[in-house]
Amino acid sequence: MTPAARRWLVRAGGVGLLLVAIALPWSVDAYTTSLFARTLVLGLVGVSVALLTGLAGLPTLGQTGPYAAGAYASALVAMHVSSVGVVQVLTGAAAGALFALLTVPLVVYARGVVVLMITLAIGELTVTAAGRWTSVTGGTDGLAGIPAIQPVWGMAPLASDRARYLYTLVVVGVVIAAMVMLLRTPAGLLLRASRDDEARTRASGHRVTGYLAVTFVGAGAVAGIAGSLLITAQQYVSPADFGFDVSALLLLGVVIGGAASIGGAIVGTALVIAVRDWLSGLLPGYAPLLLGGLFVLTAYLFPRGVAGFSTELANLVRSRSRGRTGPGDRPGTGIQGRPSRGEPVGAAPVSSGETR
Amino acid sequence: MMLQAARVLGPVDPYLIPALDGVAYGLLLFVAASGLVFCFGVANILNLAHGLLYAIGAYLAAALLDGGWGSLLLALGVGTLAAAGAGGLLAGLLAPVARRDHLTQALLTFGVALAGGALLVTAFGPDSLPVRIPAALDRSVEVAGHRYAAYRLVFIGVAALIAVLLWLAVAKTRAGMLVRAAVDDADMVACLGVNPARIRLGVLGAAGALAGAAGVLGAPIIGPAPTTGDTVLLLSLVVVVLGGLGSVQGTLLAALAVGEIQSLGVALAPTAAPFLLFAAMALVLAVRARGLPGRFLRLRPGGST
């Protein structure tokens, strides 16, 4: 399969998924629709995780931090200031970006597994703070009775699950489209360059740390928007929405989706969340056990994610037909023949496939 | 006598007991977190199942302790061995993905933590369990005019002893020398003919033993409950972030600081309490500027920033 054909296949798949997503609320009941709305929200957080993990090379377990900041800020705005969607989304974005701005000095000088550790601590501390700061967050009881949203001024409040789902879909779509367009500019290229060879990018006169800081704040804003959408979809928020299990599930979804791919992130996250909800309905009480098994299996079977796996397969087929082996056939090895710090999963073969 | 003590200590007096609690809490965190430091510093593994190892010890303590000294020794032995075995098992599970990136290892160990936590809840039930400490220690003693739990005083002594033994083991024994060498340059140690798989097994086993012992001894302080694993993992991670990987002393200082923040900090500034750990982390990282990540990265040859 040529790269061009692959690209067309991915595009066709994307359009097909979008059509399914639009048609969905007319084919399932209201409860399932609201579940899918929440899945979309987590998918958007997954996209921000993928932006950091795959594209910036900062693997994160802490995007629940800006996600929570955006959610609580939007909830407070919805309860006391305005029920207009635009205001809430912007509030969420601002709160998420501010949270990221405050934590950026902790993260941006570190790389690889240290980032994973620091962000994990940040995410966990956020949950602890949300649980204890009762006067603002409602403590572990959470904030309930959040009024329904009206997308823009003068519109009627969204009363049905279907309407809220479609609102969520539209906002998620707009944010992802904006991100994809931004990443196609030279800024996106610089980010990839910083990830692939930081020393050389620095030597070329680029301020890698600055780029990473901007990306981190941007990813915080995206997670903050997801937080505001959570308020819309769920009309309730509590610290349980931002627990350690959520961060880990997001990371799993992003790794399954191929880490460096925005579309893969949303599909992978949706898949993982769907499996979790399906499992907990099917075998109540055994969901954590089976999910744990799923994590272990994923680590063994798809070290580069499903998307990375398919690229590897494509590379293998192509190199067989040409009678030689390509550079993408040795999974998990950096330039020095060992995993380099912060090496993104599933990134190298994609770029090598495009340059050929 | 009591009045006299209160007069001498003056304004410090109300904070004496929280401060002592902080020492007990800090030493518990030190014993629990030092295993994580070894995993990370020596074997370069981010072990997200570390809290599970503590939880194993704590649950076994709740199941075995019956109020006598014998049961405490039994629980300590069984808990330490079981957690060390779990650590060894984890090393075996990690072996196939040893050369892959950290993300894979994090996913794997998190999966083990999730499944193991679920198994513990299945075996011991979803409620937090009471722990029966030896009857001789189940009373309070007088400390500077205050009543204080005897168990915690004894715990402070025992944990301090463990800290000293650990420092001696790292500083004076051959195994400790290997550990320090692996922290400095893991590749060179491998070149010298020490099998990395054996280092991984030894480190994860030792980390499990430390966490299991902490779980048994600390069960009356951080008791067995479904959230125990997460709590211990989080606090240990904060200790590692604050203390760095350089030394046993650094870990000890960081653990004591976190312990004091969690008890004395809450007593001094109840409204700011939720954010104190954040603030401490930010402060330490700001004071050291790039010192901490720099030290982490120097573990990897070629990892210049």
What attributes characterize this protein structure?
heterodimer; A: 356 residues; mainly alpha; 15 helices; globular; B: mainly alpha; two-stranded antiparallel ribbon; 2 strands; 3% strand; disordered C terminus; transmembrane (chain A); ABC_transp_permease (chain A)
Please explain how this structure is put together:
The complex is a heterodimer of chains A (356) and B (305). With 356 residues, chain A is mainly alpha-helical. Chain A has a domain at 37-244. Chain A has 15 helices and no strands. In chain A, helix 3 (64-80) crosses helix 10 (208-234), helix 4 (85-107) runs antiparallel to helix 10 and helix 11 (244-257) crosses helix 12 (262-282). Chain A is globular, with a radius of gyration of 20 Å. Chain A starts with a helix and ends with a helix. The model of chain A is unreliable at 323-356 (pLDDT under 50). Chain B is mostly helical and 305 residues long. Chain B has one domain (16-297): ABC transporter involved in vitamin B12 uptake, BtuC, CATH 1.10.3470. Helix content of chain B is 73%, strand content 3%. Chain B is built from 13 helices and 2 strands. Chain B has helices spanning 2-9, 16-43, 50-64, 69-94, 102-124, 150-172, 174-184, 186-191, 196-218, 228-243, 248-268, 273-287, 291-297, and strands at 140-143, 146-149. Chain B has a two-stranded antiparallel sheet with strand order 1-2. In chain B, helix 2 (16-43) runs antiparallel to helix 9 (196-218) and helix 11 (248-268) runs antiparallel to helix 12. Chain B is globular. Classes of the chains: A mainly alpha (356), B mainly alpha (305). Chains A and B meet through helix 5, helix 11 and helix 13 of A and helix 5, helix 10, helix 12 and helix 13 of B. Chain A: Its main location: membrane.
